[in-house]
Amino acid sequence: MVTNFDSLFDLMDAFKDEQACINHLRAIRWADGEFCPHCGANKIYHFSDRKTFKCGDCKARFSIKVGTIFEDTKLPLRKWFMAIWMITNHPKGIASVTLAKDLKITQKSAWFVLHRLRHAARTNSFNAPLKGEVQSDTTYIGGKQHNKHADKREVGSHGGAKMETLLGVVETGGELRIAHTENRKIGTTQDVILPNVEQGSILVTDEGGEFRGLERDYVHITINHKKGEYARDGFHTNSIESVWALLKRQIVGIHHWVSPKHLQKYANEMAWRYNRRDMKPSPRMNDLFACVEGRLRYRELIA
């Protein structure tokens, strides 16, 4: 299995044809043993074309792409590999319009490709809680009302504008979790924090009312930004604020606009890259290959 590709040029040099891509995907997907994507049996027959297989139990014939985000794709895997390279190694991701030009496909296809990759990059719910020193903060995503036509301006709770709320928790030097929440009320906020942060940890937040009462479960340190305080006894919220700066540069600078329906997916994509920021390009790309189980149909995406 080829694992060393530190640039897009190296990637294409390593995977010169479709069979090389199939071999790489097979080596990662079946690293712990071969299995049938239909029934899970591990008695697998190989055909001479090296592209298809047959289950010894259920007798189904399949390719290595069945049961993954690549199932039923009409695009060659080499184009998928290039898309994976770009979304995992560009710090702010890539726009579907740009990807469409780079891969010579339609913008609709590029949009679907990127959403299938975001589906692979979703955070597993069974991840261990964050612990030690953890920072948490909320932010708002959405267009400014004065930039909209008068008949499209919306009324909401934040500055007179209807904006989407994101809550982030990040372990100092560790992982990041982001949740798209309905509002910033105490109950909503703490329903995200409590399962994601281990009790007894140091939790650093600003003075926001949604964080009241957390001292029952954590060593809660509050930084009062309204009074010009940006650190207390060496504790700060700089890490989570840097996350928001990076996410907003991704949304505003790369995508320009993200619908509320898909906002969580874009946040997951950014969090996935952040949590692998110390990885080399090849292992980071292979880490996404290890997450490709689970098909996403177009009708499910746009439903």
Summary of the model, kept short:
With 303 residues, this protein is of the alpha/beta class.
Total strand segments: 8
Q: Could you give the order of the helices and strands? A: HHEEEHHHEEEHEEHHHH
User: What fraction, in percent, of the residue positions are helical?
Assistant: 25-40%
CATH superfamily of the domain at 133-258: Ribonuclease H-like superfamily/Ribonuclease H
Structural class, from helix and strand content? alpha/beta
List the keywords.
Nucleotidyltransferase, domain 5, about 300 residues, three-stranded antiparallel sheet, 10 helices, 8 strands, alpha/beta
Structure description:
- It holds the Pfam family Zn_ribbon_IS1595.
- This is IS1595 family transposase.
- The chain has 10 helices and 8 strands.
- By secondary structure, it is α/β, with parallel strands linked by helices.
- The two termini are 38 Å apart.
Topology:
Blueprint: H1 8-14, H2 18-29, E1 44-46, E2 52-55, E3 61-63, H3 77-89, H4 96-103, H5 107-120, E4 133-141, E5 164-171, E6 176-181, H6 186-196, E7 202-206, E8 219-223, H7 238-255, H8 263-274, H9 281-289, H10 298-302
Parallel strand pairs: 4-7, 7-8
Antiparallel strand pairs: 1-2, 2-3, 4-5, 5-6
Helix pairs in contact: 3-9, 4-5, 5-8, 7-8
